UniProtKB/TrEMBL annotation:
HAMAP family: RPE. Binds 1 divalent metal cation per subunit. GO terms for cellular component: cytoplasm. Belongs to the ribulose-phosphate 3-epimerase family. Pathway: Carbohydrate degradation. The lineage of its organism: Bacteria, Bacillati, Actinomycetota, Actinomycetes, Kitasatosporales. The gene is rpe. This is Ribulose-phosphate 3-epimerase. Catalyzes the reversible epimerization of D-ribulose 5-phosphate to D-xylulose 5-phosphate. One of its GO terms (biological process) is pentose catabolic process. It catalyses: D-ribulose 5-phosphate = D-xylulose 5-phosphate. The active site is at D33, D173.
Length: 228
C-alpha cells in the first residue's frame, strides 16, 4: 500500500487555517485534531471549523476525534465534510455500529488506540474499519516525544492485518518526524500524521515530500511490505 503523509493542523496557525492548508500541497490528507477538554485535557475545534475548512481546501480531511461520546458526534463530522473520521476505542460505546454509520454516510471509518490500549481485544472489529490509528504519544497535545515502546504494537497490528488479508490502513500519530518515520514504516505503518515536523519548518510542502521519501525507502525494505 502507498505511503500517505497527513499534516496535522494542530501545529498550524489557527488564525490562518485556509492558508496553512494550501501550504502543504501534495499531502494526502489534512489531519484535524478535535479535542473536547474531557476525553483529553485540551480544547481545539469542532464541527463549524471542519465545515469551513472543507470548503477552503481540496485536500481531504482526516478528523481524529479525541472526544467523549463519539457515537453521538462522529456522524456530524462526516456531514461537515470529513472524508475520514477516527473515533477512540476507549470512548465509543458501540464501535461496530459507529463504524458502520460513518461508512454509510460516505466517509472512511477509523478507530484509534491510546498507547496503553492493546490491539488484540479488537481483532474481530478490524474488518469493520478502513484504518486503525496507533497513538505514539498520549493524546491531547502536539509536539510530544515519540514513544519507542509503541513499535512492537505497530508490528503486532500489521501482523493481524496481514493474517486476515485486510486492506486496512495503519496510521501512526505522535512524534512522527525525520528521526522516527522510518522506524514506524519498517514496523508496519503506512499513514503518517506529522505536525511540528511539517508546520514547524520553513517549507511545509517540502517537509511532506521529504517525509514521504523517507517512509517509502523504509517501506521498500520492510519485511511486511515484501510479504504483502
Amino acid at each position: 500500500m502507498a505511503v500517505q503523509i497527513n499534516p496535522s493542523i494542530l501545529s498550524a496557525d489557527f488564525a490562518r487555517l485556509a492558508d496553512e492548508a494550501q501550504a502543504v500541497k501534495g499531502a494526502d490528507w489534512l489531519h484535524v485534531d478535535v479535542m473536547d477538554n474531557h476525553f483529553v485535557p485540551n480544547l481545539t475545534l469542532g464541527v463549524p471549523v471542519v465545515e469551513s475548512l472543507s470548503r477552503a481546501t481540496d485536500i481531504p480531511l482526516d478528523c481524529h476525534l479525541m472526544i467523549e461520546d463519539p457515537d453521538r458526534w462522529a456522524p456530524q463530522f462526516v456531514e461537515a465534510g470529513a472524508g475520514s473520521v477516527t473515533f477512540h476505542a476507549e470512548a465509543a460505546a458501540a464501535p461496530v455500529r459507529l463504524a458502520r454509520e460513518i461508512r454509510a454516510k460516505g466517509a472512511r471509518a477509523s478507530m484509534a488506540l491510546k498507547p496503553a490500549t492493546p490491539i488484540e481485544p479488537f481483532e474481530d472489529l478490524l474488518p469493520e474499519l478502513d484504518m486503525l490509528l496507533i497513538m505514539t504519544v498520549e493524546p491531547g497535545f502536539g509536539g510530544q516525544a515519540f514513544l519507542d515502546i509503541m513499535l512492537p504494537k505497530i508490528r503486532r497490528t500489521r501482523e493481524l492485518i496481514s493474517r486476515h488479508g485486510l486492506e486496512l490502513w495503519l496510521q501512526v500519530d505522535g512524534g512522527v518526524s525525520a528521526e522516527t518515520v522510518e522506524r514506524c514504516a519498517e514496523a508496519g505503518a503506512d499513514v503518517f500524521v506529522a505536525g511540528s515536523a511539517v508546520y514547524g519548518t520553513e517549507d511545509p510542502a517540502a517537509a511532506v515530500r521529504s517525509l514521504r521519501a523517507q517512509a517509502e525507502r523504509a517501506t521498500a525494505g520492510a519485511s511486511w511490505a515484501c510479504a504483502h
